[in-house]
Amino acid sequence: MIQQDEMKGGVKVSELVEHLDLAVVNKGADFDTALVGIKDVNRPGLQLVGFFEYFDERRLQVIGMAETQMLASMEGEQRTRSFSNLFNYEIPALVVSRDLDIYPECLSMARKHQRTLLHTTDTTVVFTTKVIEYLTHALAPTITRHGGLLDIYGEGVLITGDSGVGKSETAIELVKRGHRLVADDAVDIRREADQLLGKAPDLIKHYIELRGIGVVNVQQLLGMSAVKPESQVDLVVHLERWREDKFYDRFGLDEERVNILGIEVPIVTIPVQPGRNLATIVEVAAMNNRCKKYGFNAAQQLADDLERQAMGG
To answer: Which residue among 33, 192, 212, 249 is least crowded, i.e. fewest CB within 10 A of its CB?
Structure first.
């Protein structure tokens, strides 16, 4: 079963400083604990003139050329009040971009209210883009699924099933056929916009466990072309042991889907029994899913042809 979405509370300001190479002008009291929980940033021009309606203090605050020029038109006492009002809120940090000079009143109020004040040489647009890109990735909803993920003909195929059903054996056979391994045994899946992206946990990246052989490193064994760091999740293939009491769809008209982090993903169930070549079947499932994306559904076309024939068309 799919686990509950693991929503991240935020990214530490200290992590942002390290990742984006920001200069720390003043380290706030909460520098090591403050979180940025929203991926959008705010340019506090309105707040600096006293308008705090709809102000979200969880956002990273960024001052650029426009705000700096507006502050230049103020008297020193007015700038002090403006920064005091802003720092009175528990903002994660204020970033001054473009390597602009920091007003003394800004630094003074940051120290008084013990707020974090940062500096960057990037332009406001470049810095904002970097922050949003990083936060979009870091704050994405994430779950971990038991199974393997492979890139097969450009389709990200998540192979699931009970332990011992043959997931890893199928994966290594697919890799030997030229497809690429993303993860085995556990897959970290995150949602970004309307797509699901999967990768291996760092500890088990490139490893596959084969019963009777043990753990092998696919990258070392078969080369860099056999692995891929990340892939979309386009199709779920569920392997289960053959059950005589269960009806398995032989026509393919019933398209089942599974919900992962709010996105519906096609799923096919493949019964496992001696003599079935699972790697070939998974390859066909991936190619068939790709065909459906481009508007060709073989089962539906056959059904339409049979209906036309039955009607004497």
So the answer is: 212
Question: Euclidean distance between the first and final Cα of the chain, in Å?
Answer: 46
Burial (0-12, 13-18, 19+ Cβ within 10 Å), 299: middle
Catalytic residue among 194, 202, 245, 250: 250
Q: In the structure encoding, which two tokens stand for residue 178, read together?
A: 């030229």
- CB neighbours of residue 237 within 10 Å: 26
Catalytic annotation present for 185? yes
Please list, in sequence order, all residues whose beta carbon lies within 8 angstroms of the beta carbon of residue 290, skipping any fewer than 6 positions away.
153, 154, 155
pLDDT averaged over every residue in the chain = 90
Question: pTM, whole model, 2 decimals?
Answer: 0.77
Q: Is 228 a catalytic residue?
A: no
Residue among 19, 112, 146, 176 flagged as catalytic = 146
Q: At what angle do helices 104-113 and 76-87 cross, to 10 degrees?
A: 30
What is the DSSP code string of 131-157? HHHHHHHHTS-EEEEESEEEEETTEEE
Residue of 167, 180, 190, 228 marked catalytic: 167
Instruction: Return d(Cα 118, Cα 127) in angstroms, integer.
Output: 12
Active site (annotated) includes residue 167: yes
Q: Is 191 a catalytic residue?
A: no
Distances in Å between the alpha carbon of 278 and those of 20, 69, 251, 313?
46, 66, 18, 38
DSSP 8-state code for residue 285: H
